Amino acid sequence: MITLTRNGVNANGTSLQGFIESDYATLVQLFGDPDPGDGYKTQVDWAFELYDENFGNVIVTIYDWKQGEGYVGPGGKRPEEITVWNVGEHESKFFEKHFGTFEKDSFICFEVDHFRIE
Asked: Is 73 helix (H, G, I), strand (E, B) or coil?
């Protein structure tokens, strides 16, 4: 079982490790309201710390990347319209273990059965 904590997480230095397919409403239901992005390359993001018995504490981020009007201009997507989200962390160990080796052209479906949110 993986335990998730959202409060006070410093996600500086995380980078893209893969993608998930999910609608915005599901992510809000699972993780609560997102934090605001930078208004340019990201509109919203969720940053949290996961505890996995095999890896210890792992910082993970879920965010939109260069999909909103701030970056794309007119025609950019609102968060509610996004269905593919970037997943970042410091190293790919957690994402790779739970979702497989990252390939640029492949996506995963987010499975929430593995998580306990605190």
From this structure: coil
